[in-house]
Design goal:
Order of helices and strands: EHEHEHEHEHHHHHHHHHHH
Low-confidence stretches: none
CATH class of the largest domain: Mainly Alpha
Oligomer: single chain
Strand content: 5-15%
Number of helices: 15
Largest sheet: 5 strands, parallel
Helix content: 40-55%
Mean pLDDT: 88
Radius of gyration: 25 Å
Structural class: alpha/beta
Number of domains: 2
Strand order of the largest sheet: 2-1-3-4-5
Length: 351
């Protein structure tokens, strides 16, 4: 059940009434006139509270002490706290953020802005909780299927990736194309004779097979975002970006395979196939050789395939035009040697 209650903590009754009125049409509000009352309410109703609006200067227990107690209770990363105070000194603001406040709103308040700021963060926390729940459900499902995936064989990996592709309106051919192009690029890089590209045939096979799991984290992304025909909002894009981390969390549900090399390739590719050569990617902002060669290769293969095939939000474009866009940096920065390999592969008409 989605959390709906907002806890308002202020020693002035008029302040509590004003804040309560702001959210009265959508949320149930709980009130406490000091920090100790707030903690007592949190102990009883922690699972129902979506946000805490907290004054700093109060009798019995002040706002900072409330946040310290919430941290001891393990609530600071589960319930967003907003400091609403007239005390906006640099020292107070710095300490508030250090304790984990999501935002500090200065009194006197402007109701519209308070509502927008609080509701935006509440929605983000709610979305994160839903994603975590989905990941947990998928983890439970994967553990129940432990015997089936004991050998982590190729057919099961491909079936999982294809199922995710169907959710995003694809036929399953995307992951097959990624696997094929990854194999071609790795083989082309190997021909350069450079030590960092000295892959064996088996390594190329394993990396290529692992590449089809690059978007497994999209299993945790809402269909409304995954299949949106238009441009994503900034908040939707931030949610979409979590598929890299969500994918790793799904893979972590099969710990018996962590020593398997294919698993290790898949985990790294899943997390880092959106990193960019100049550090402008996500989720870790890696750059240059900090990104493994296999993740560099899959990132190029993924972008090229996305450009040259129809998606729910865009038509397909010709391969030559896609190559030009990639070389111009319109899709982010990539390892020049991987791009040269892509060009050679295309010139050889292998794709």
């Amino acid at each position: 059940m989605e959390k709906k209650d907002i806890l308002i903590v202020d020693d002035m009754e008029i302040n509590r009434a004003i804040l309560s009125q702001i959210f009265a049409d959508r949320n149930k509000t709980l009130e406490a006139e000091n920090g100790l009352e707030a903690i007592q309410i949190l102990e009883r109703q922690r699972n129902n509270i979506a946000a805490v609006l907290l004054d700093i200067v109060m009798p019995v227990m002040d706002g900072f002490q409330v946040m310290e107690k919430m941290a001891e209770m393990g609530l600071m990363d589960k319930i967003p706290v907003f400091l609403i105070t007239a005390n906006t000194s640099e020292e107070s603001m710095s300490w508030g953020y250090q304790l984990g406040a999501m935002d500090i709103i200065e009194k006197p308040i402007v109701p519209y802005f308070v509502r927008r700021r609080v509701e935006s963060v509440m929605e983000l926390f709610s979305a994160r909780e839903r994603l975590s729940h989905v990941v947990e459900l998928q983890g439970q499902k994967l553990r129940r299927q432990e015997q089936e995936i004991a050998n982590l064989n190729y057919s099961i990996i491909e079936s999982l990736s294809t199922a995710i592709e169907f959710r995003s309106g694809e036929s399953g051919e995307h992951v097959k194309r990624i696997r094929h192009l990854t194999e071609l690029l790795l083989d082309e890089l190997r021909k350069t004779g450079k030590e960092e590209y000295d892959f064996s045939d088996r390594e190329i096979q394993e990396i290529s097979q692992a590449s089809i799991l690059h978007d497994v984290g999209k299993i945790a992304i809402s269909d409304l975002i995954l299949n949106k025909p238009g441009r994503l909002t900034s908040e939707e894009f931030e949610t979409m970006k979590t598929h890299t981390i969500m994918g790793c969390q799904v893979l972590e549900q099969i710990p018996q395979h962590k020593n398997n090399r294919l698993y290790q390739y898949a985990y790294d590719i899943c997390r880092h196939h959106h990193e960019r050569w100049d550090g402008g990617g996500y989720p870790d902002g890696l750059k240059g050789s900090q990104i493994t060669v296999w993740s560099q290769v899959v990132s190029v293969a993924d972008v090229f395939d996305a450009l040259t095939n129809k998606r729910v939000y865009k038509p397909a474009i010709p391969a030559a035009e896609a190559l030009e866009m990639i070389f111009k940096g319109e899709c982010g920065a990539f390892n020049p040697e991987v791009l040269d390999s892509l060009e050679r592969v295309l010139n050889q008409q292998k794709v």
